[in-house]
Specification:
The complex is a heterotrimer of chains A (about 290), B (about 550) and C (about 230).
Chain A (H helix, E strand, L loop, with lengths): L3 E4 L9 H13 L4 E3 L8 H6 L7 H13 L3 E4 L2 H16 L1 H10 L11 E4 H9 L1 H7 L8 E4 L21 H9 L2 E3 L12 H4 L1 H17 L4 E4 L2 H19 L5 E4 H9 L11 H6 L10
Parallel strand pairs in A: 1-2, 1-3, 3-4, 5-6, 5-7, 7-8
Helix pairs in contact in A: 1-12, 3-4, 4-5, 6-7, 6-8, 7-8, 10-11
Chain B lengths: L13 H20 L7 H11 L8 E3 L9 E3 H7 L7 H5 L5 E8 L3 H12 L7 E4 L16 E2 L8 H11 L6 H21 L5 E2 L2 E2 L1 E2 L9 E2 L5 H15 L4 E2 L2 E8 L5 E8 L5 E11 L23 H8 L4 E2 L4 E8 L13 H4 L4 E2 L13 H14 L4 E2 L5 E5 L2 H7 L3 H5 L1 H8 L10 E10 L2 E3 L11 E3 L4 E2 L10 H23 L8 H12 L18 H4 L7
Parallel strand pairs in B: 3-4, 3-13, 4-10, 13-21, 20-22
Antiparallel strand pairs in B: 1-2, 5-9, 6-7, 8-9, 11-12, 12-13, 14-20, 15-19, 16-18, 17-18, 18-19
Helix pairs in contact in B: 2-11, 5-8, 5-15, 6-7, 7-15
Chain C lengths: L7 E5 L2 E5 L5 H8 L18 E6 L6 E4 L9 E5 L21 H5 L11 H5 L6 H9 L3 H8 L7 H5 L6 H16 L4 H11 L4 H9 L2 H9 L12
Parallel strand pairs in C: 1-5
Antiparallel strand pairs in C: 1-2, 3-4, 3-5
Helix pairs in contact in C: 4-5, 5-7
C-alpha cells in the first residue's frame, strides 16, 4: 500500500510519545507506513473550534496545504481530538468554496488549497484499508481473551458526519480487539466524555467523569482499557492514579493506547511495554518470552 | 524582500557578465592547480610601500599638540584629535553628579560588555556598574564581525604558535606583553563562552576551525558567518539577566578627572534630548571602538554608524598617549557592487572556505590568505597599478571573489549553510554568490592602533582603563582576522577586572574638566581653527543642497 | 550620490521626496535630509536597528525590510519601527532544566500561537519564524536553534504577532540553553586549559617576548602552515 501522510499533533511528540512510537511500528509491520507531514503545525484544537471565526481555522487548514504539497490526498491522525478538528475544518473548506477562498487569501504565502483532502483516523484506516483479517494475520502473540474495555471517548465518534462510527453502538475498537485476540468488554460509558480540557481548571468534574469510566470497566471485568486520544489517556490515568485500588476494589485496569496493545500482539520487541500493562500480561502468561521473534 | 516574479533579470550589466564568463572559463584550472603562491617578506614589503594607503605621505600629518605630539596619523584623525570641546568646561564643572557608580563603562560593543560582566564577576554589584553607549547596546562593530575568533585550543596548535602569527602579521611592531596576553587568555575565553551557551560551529563534537589571513594553524572558531552577532547577543543577554544597568543613546562628550589627575567619570549627553548627565565613577573603562565613519582617504567603511573615534578624542584630551595611529586596516574585501551596499563587509571566511580573488580576465593574482594589509594592497595594485580591475557603472573598480568555488570544494549548499549572512546580503540584490562571483575592493575596517594600555588594560591616567578596538599595541601595524573578537574579550575582561579592583580601593576627588580647559589653551596656541569641534558623535550624510537650506545652515 | 538624478519618488511617513534610484532606503532618507539618531546602527544588516515597514502603491500587502539593505522603489510608502517594547524574561542559565519545557514556562503566551504565519512574513531575514515557535511549543530546542539562528532581533515579528508573543527573546534563551546542554566543548579545550594553568607554555612565551625582531622574522619564515582540508577538526 502507498505510504500515507500522517499528522502527529503536539501531544504525540511530548507526553504521548508511546502512542506515536507504537503506531509507527505497527503500521510499518502492516505494510502501510505513516510518513510524518513536513512542517506540520498545531491542529489548533482549542483555537480552531472555539468560535466560528474563520481565522481560527488557519492553523488546521495549513496542514491541508502541507498534505497537498506532498502530492497525497489523505492525512491520517492518531489523536482523536486532532482528527476531529482537522476533519471538521477540512469539511468546511472542502465543501464551502467561499470559506476556502477566504482561508487561501489569508495564507497568501502558501499555494492555494484546492480542496479534496480527506482526513482519517488511524482506526478507520485499519478498519477500511488494512482490514481486520490482515491485522489478525499479523498477530503472533494473541491476547488470549485478555478482557479489554473499548473506550472510544467522544471526539472519535461525534458529531455525525465527522465521527468514524456511530456514537450509539460503535464497533470499530471491538473489531480491532477481536482481531488481536482480546475479549471485548462493553460498558455504558464507552462513548462518554472523559472530561476533556476541564481537567485543567475543573479537575473535580473531569475526575468525576473519568473515574466513572474506569469503574464501569473494572466492575465488568476489564483488566485493560484502550484509548485513542492523549487527553482521554491522561484523564483516565489521572483517575487511576488518584483513586487507585481504594475506589476500584483491587488493581486498576491498565490504560493504554490501542496501538500499544497492537504492538504487543504483533510481538514487536522494539516497542516498549508500558509498565502498568506488564502485570496483566504476566497474569495471562503474555509477558516477554524466551522465544525471540 | 526578494522574489520579484518570473523574469530573471541579470543583476550584472553586460560588461561585468562578460568578465564573469572569463572567470568561469578558468575556474576548473584554478581549482585543479591550487591558489597562487604566497609572497616572500620582501615582496610583501615592496607591495605595501607602493600600494597600501597607509604609505601615502600626503594623507597624514604629525599631531601638533597633546601627549603624542609629533606622531603621524591620517588627517581625518588629526582633525578630531586637534579639536575644541562641544561643551563649556566651566559651566559643566559646576553641575553636581547625577549618578555615582563604582565602574563606568563607555561603549556598547563586545569589549564594553565583557568589561562590565567581569567587573561584576570581580565582586562589583550590578547596581554599581553602568554601561553608557552612544546608540543601542549592540549597535557596534562587534555585532558585524563575521568570520571568527582565534584561539589556540587544539593539540596541534599552541599559544606560542599563535603569538608568532600575531607578531608576523603585525610586522613585529606589536607590544610583546599585550600580544602574549592576547594569545594566553584565548582558550579561557572560549571556555567562558561555552559556559555562557555561545554556539560555535561544531561537526561531530569537534570545532570547525579555519585559517585566517596570515595564520599558520586553523584556529578560527566561527558561528556560521554571524560570529560577532552570536557573541554579542549572548553577552548582552547575560548583562540583562544580571540586571547591569545600560544607558542607551547616552554618548560620552568628556571624561572627568579629579585634581590629582585621576579618572572621576564622564559627562554623557542624551542623544535625543541633548540633556547632559554627569556620572561620577571610581573607575572608568573606555571601550568605545573604532573610527570607520571618519572615512579616511575617502574610503567607504564596514563600521557602524557611531564609529567616530570619540573615545580616542576624550582620552587624548585627558593625557593618554596613542600609538600606531598611522596604521589603518582596510579590509581587502568590501562590497564593490552593487553600489547600494558599497563598502559593507564581505568576510574573510569567504576566502578561507576557498573563494579566491580573480581579476577581470579570470586570472588569480594573489595568495588568497595573505595578511590583510598585503591582500588589500594587492587588490589595489590589480585595479590601479595593473589595469586588471573590473569597472562598474558607478565608477567603482574591484576584483572578483570567485565564490562558486566554495560549493565546488565543500559541496553544494555550503555557502547557504556556513555563509548564510553573505549569501543573503547579495541575494537581496538578485546576486546568488553560489552561482556567480561577487565584486570586492578594500574598505576602511579597523583601527589597528589606539590608546596605550598595559597588559592589565590600564592607561596613563590612573583609574582609566581601556580595551578593544579603541586601544592600541596588541596588533601592531596590522591585525589578523579573528584577533579583534579575541582582543575585545581578552582586554575587555582585563580592563573590567582592573577597573573593579581599582574601584574597590580608590575613590576620586571631585570631577573637573580642567584638563579640557588646558587642552583648549594648547589648541589656541597651536592656532587650531575654533570651528573644529569634537567628538563628532555621528557622521552627517545629508547633502550640501539640503544643508545649505536648513535654518542652522548645517 | 548627490549627483545622481532624483528619479524615484518615495513617501517617508507620508511626505513625498524625490531620491535617486538604486540606493537603499537609509541612503535615500539621508539624501532627503534626514539625519538618523534612532533607526541606524551597524548599517550592514546585523544589528536590527533599522526595521522598516512599507507598502507599494497598488498592493495591499504590508512589507518589511531593513532600511540599510533594502533598495528604494518608486511609489513606496514607508516608516521605520526603531523600537519594539518587549521586556524579556530574566533567567539563570544554570537553573534551567532542558528536560522540561522551560520555553513555555517562561513564555506561556507561546500557546496563543494560531499559526497565522504573520511573524514569518514580517521577518527581514527570511526566517521561518512560525516554525520555530511551533518547535518551541513542542520543546524541540534543536529545531528552535536551527531556525532562529540568523535572527537579528529587529522586533518586527513581535510587533505584528496577534498573540503578542516575543519571539526573539524566547529564541535567545532557547539557543543558550541548547548551547550549554546539547553542544559540549570538545575535550581538547579542557586539556589546553589545564596546560595553561600548569604553566606549560610560559617558558616558550618568555623566550618569544624577549626575542629580537630578527629572531622573530626567522622563526616566522620557518613556520609550517597547517593544510586546509575539507572539514577542519
Amino acid at each position: 500500500m502507498d505510504p500515507i501522510a500522517y499528522f502527529p499533533g503536539c501531544s504525540l511528540k511530548d507526553s504521548a510519545r508511546p502512542f506515536e512510537l507504537s503506531a509507527l511500528a505497527v503500521m510499518e509491520a502492516l505494510g502501510l507506513p505513516l510518513i510524518e507531514l513536513p512542517r506540520w503545525t498545531c491542529c489548533g484544537t482549542v483555537a480552531s473550534l472555539a468560535t466560528d471565526d474563520l481565522m481560527h481555522h488557519v492553523s488546521s487548514a495549513r496542514n491541508l496545504v502541507r498534505t497537498q504539497e506532498t502530492g497525497g490526498k489523505e492525512l491520517v491522525a492518531l489523536c482523536s481530538m486532532c482528527f476531529n478538528t482537522l476533519k471538521q475544518v477540512a469539511a468546511r473548506v472542502n465543501g464551502d468554496v467561499d470559506a476556502r477562498d477566504k482561508v487561501n487569501a489569508f495564507m497568501d504565502e502558501e499555494e492555494d488549497y484546492e480542496g479534496g483532502i480527506d482526513v482519517l483516523h488511524l482506526l478507520e484506516l485499519l478498519r477500511d484499508r488494512v482490514g481486520w483479517d490482515a491485522v489478525e494475520e499479523r498477530v503472533n502473540r494473541p491476547l488470549f481473551d485478555v478482557p479489554v474495555s473499548a473506550y472510544y471517548g467522544c471526539t472519535l465518534v461525534r458529531p455525525k458526519g465527522v465521527g468514524i462510527d456511530g456514537s450509539d453502538a460503535p464497533s470499530v475498537l471491538g473489531g480491532l480487539l477481536e482481531a488481536l485476540g482480546a475479549s471485548v468488554i462493553a460498558t455504558p460509558f464507552d462513548t462518554e466524555c472523559c472530561g476533556s480540557y476541564q481537567i485543567v481548571d475543573r479537575r473535580d468534574l473531569a475526575m468525576d467523569r473519568a473515574l466513572r469510566i474506569v469503574v464501569a470497566a473494572k466492575t465488568r471485568g476489564a483488566e485493560v482499557i484502550v484509548t485513542s486520544c492523549p487527553l482521554c489517556q491522561h484523564n483516565l490515568e489521572q483517575a487511576v492514579g488518584e483513586f487507585g485500588e481504594e475506589a476500584l476494589n483491587g488493581a486498576a485496569p491498565a490504560v493504554v493506547y490501542f496501538t500499544e496493545l497492537m504492538a504487543i500482539a504483533f510481538g514487536l520487541e522494539q516497542v516498549e511495554v508500558p509498565a502498568r500493562l506488564q502485570p496483566v500480561l504476566d497474569a495471562h502468561r503474555l509477558g516477554a518470552t524466551e522465544g525471540a521473534t | 524582500m526578494s522574489g520579484t516574479g518570473d523574469v530573471r533579470v541579470d543583476p550584472y550589466p553586460a560588461e561585468m557578465r562578460a568578465s564573469i564568463e572569463r572567470v568561469e572559463a578558468t575556474r576548473a584550472g584554478r581549482l585543479r592547480d591550487g591558489p597562487t603562491a604566497a609572497m616572500s617578506a620582501v615582496e610583501r614589503d615592496e607591495l605595501l610601500k607602493a600600494f597600501h594607503p597607509d604609505y601615502k605621505e600626503d594623507k597624514k600629518r604629525a599631531l601638533a599638540i597633546g601627549p603624542s605630539a609629533g606622531q603621524l596619523l591620517p588627517h581625518e584623525v588629526a582633525e578630531v584629535l586637534e579639536a575644541y570641546p562641544l561643551l563649556e568646561p566651566e559651566a559643566v564643572e559646576r553641575l553636581e553628579p547625577d549618578i555615582e557608580v563604582q565602574v563606568l563603562v563607555l561603549g556598547g560593543g563586545g569589549a564594553a560588555t565583557v568589561a562590565a560582566l567581569f567587573a561584576h564577576e570581580q565582586g562589583v554589584p550590578a547596581s554599581e556598574i553602568l554601561i553608557a553607549t552612544k546608540l543601542r547596546h549592540g549597535d557596534c562593530n562587534t555585532i558585524m564581525a563575521q568570520g571568527g575568533i582565534q584561539a589556540a585550543d587544539r593539540p596541534a596548535d599552541s599559544p606560542p604558535i599563535h603569538y608568532l602569527d600575531v607578531l608576523g602579521g603585525g610586522h613585529y611592531t606589536n607590544d610583546a606583553e599585550l600580544a602574549r596576553a592576547l594569545v594566553s587568555d584565548a582558550p579561557m575565553i572560549i571556555d567562558w563562552h561555552e559556559r555562557l551557551g555561545i554556539l560555535y560551529d561544531k561537526v561531530g563534537g569537534e570545532y570547525l576551525e579555519a585559517h585566517g589571513g596570515g595564520t599558520s594553524r586553523m584556529r578560527m572558531h566561527s558561528a556560521k558567518d554571524y560570529t560577532g552577532m552570536e557573541l554579542m547577543r549572548v553577552l548582552r543577554d547575560e548583562v540583562r539577566n544580571l540586571a547591569i544597568p545600560v544607558l542607551e543613546f547616552a554618548t560620552a562628550v568628556e571624561l572627568l578627572l579629579d585634581e590629582e589627575g585621576q579618572a572621576a567619570g564622564a559627562v554623557l549627553m542624551n542623544l535625543e534630548t541633548e540633556e547632559m548627565t554627569v556620572v561620577r565613577a571610581h573607575a572608568t573603562v573606555l571601550a568605545t571602538g573604532g573610527f570607520g565613519r571618519l572615512h579616511i582617504q575617502g574610503y567607504p567603511t564596514t563600521n557602524h554608524y557611531g564609529a567616530t573615534a570619540d573615545g580616542l578624542v576624550l582620552a587624548y584630551r585627558a593625557g593618554v598617549p596613542v600609538i600606531d595611529m598611522d596604521s589603518v586596516q582596510y579590509h581587502p574585501t568590501g562590497v564593490a557592487y552593487p553600489a547600494a551596499i558599497l563598502g559593507q563587509l564581505a568576510t574573510e571566511k569567504l576566502r578561507n572556505q576557498g573563494a579566491e580573488p580573480v581579476n577581470r580576465d579570470g586570472n588569480a593574482f594573489v595568495y588568497p590568505l595573505e595578511p590583510r594589509d598585503v591582500e588589500a594592497a594587492a587588490i589595489i595594485r590589480e585595479c590601479y597599478g595593473r589595469d586588471g580591475g573590473v569597472s562598474t557603472p558607478s565608477g567603482v573598480r574591484g576584483v572578483w571573489l570567485d565564490t562558486p568555488m566554495i560549493d565546488e570544494i565543500h559541496g553544494k549548499g555550503t555557502i547557504k549553510r556556513r555563509l548564510a549572512a553573505m549569501w543573503m546580503m547579495w541575494n537581496r540584490h538578485g546576486i546568488d554568490i553560489s552561482v556567480d562571483p561577487a565584486l570586492v575592493f578594500p574598505t576602511l575596517h579597523y583601527q589597528n592602533g589606539g590608546v596605550e594600555i598595559d597588559a592589565r588594560g590600564a592607561t596613563a591616567v590612573p583609574g582609566l582603563f581601556a580595551g578593544g578596538e579603541v586601544a592600541g599595541g596588541v596588533h601592531g601595524k596590522n591585525r589578523l582576522m579573528g584577533n579583534s573578537l579575541l582582543d575585545c574579550n581578552v582586554f575587555g575582561r582585563r580592563a573590567g577586572i582592573a577597573a573593579a579592583q581599582w574601584a574597590q580601593e580608590h575613590r576620586p576627588g571631585k570631577g573637573t574638566l580642567s584638563h579640557v580647559a588646558r587642552y583648549t589653551a594648547s589648541l589656541e596656541s597651536a592656532g587650531i581653527p575654533r570651528a573644529r569641534t569634537a567628538p563628532m558623535i555621528l557622521p552627517d550624510y545629508r547633502r550640501e543642497a539640503v544643508l545649505a537650506r536648513t535654518l542652522r545652515g548645517g | 550620490m548627490s549627483d545622481e538624478p532624483a528619479t524615484t519618488r518615495i513617501f517617508i511617513m507620508g511626505k513625498a521626496y524625490d531620491v535617486p534610484a538604486g540606493v537603499t532606503i537609509m541612503d535615500a532618507m539621508e539624501y532627503a535630509g534626514y539625519r538618523f539618531v534612532r533607526g541606524a546602527g551597524c548599517r550592514s544588516g546585523f544589528c536590527g536597528a533599522c526595521g522598516t515597514v512599507y507598502r507599494k502603491e497598488g498592493d495591499y500587502r504590508l512589507e518589511f525590510a531593513l532600511a540599510c539593505q533594502e533598495m528604494v522603489e518608486d511609489g513606496i510608502h514607508l516608516t521605520q519601527l526603531p523600537f519594539t517594547p518587549a521586556p524579556r524574561e530574566d533567567y539563570v542559565l544554570e537553573d534551567l532544566d532542558p528536560t522540561e519545557n522551560v520555553l513555555l514556562q517562561h513564555y506561556p503566551e507561546l500557546a496563543r500561537c494560531v499559526a497565522c504565519n504573520t511573524c514569518t512574513k514580517a521577518c527581514p531575514q527570511d526566517l521561518e519564524v512560525m516554525d520555530y515557535i511551533q518547535a518551541a511549543l513542542r520543546g524541540d530546542l534543536a529545531r528552535v536553534v536551527e531556525l532562529s539562528f540568523d535572527c537579528i532581533q529587529c522586533g518586527l515579528c513581535a510587533m505584528r504577532c496577534p498573540a503578542d508573543i516575543k519571539h526573539y527573546h524566547m529564541a535567545q534563551m532557547a539557543r543558550r540553553l541548547y548551547g550549554v546542554s546539547a553542544s559540549p566543548a570538545p575535550g581538547h579545550l579542557a586539556e589546553r586549559l589545564q596546560e595553561m594553568e600548569a604553566g606549560r607554555y610560559e617558558d616558550e612565551l618568555d623566550a618569544l617576548v624577549a626575542a629580537s625582531t630578527e629572531e622573530l622574522k626567522a622563526r616566522y619564515a620557518e613556520r609550517d602552515i597547517e593544510k586546509s582540508s575539507e572539514e577542519s577538526a
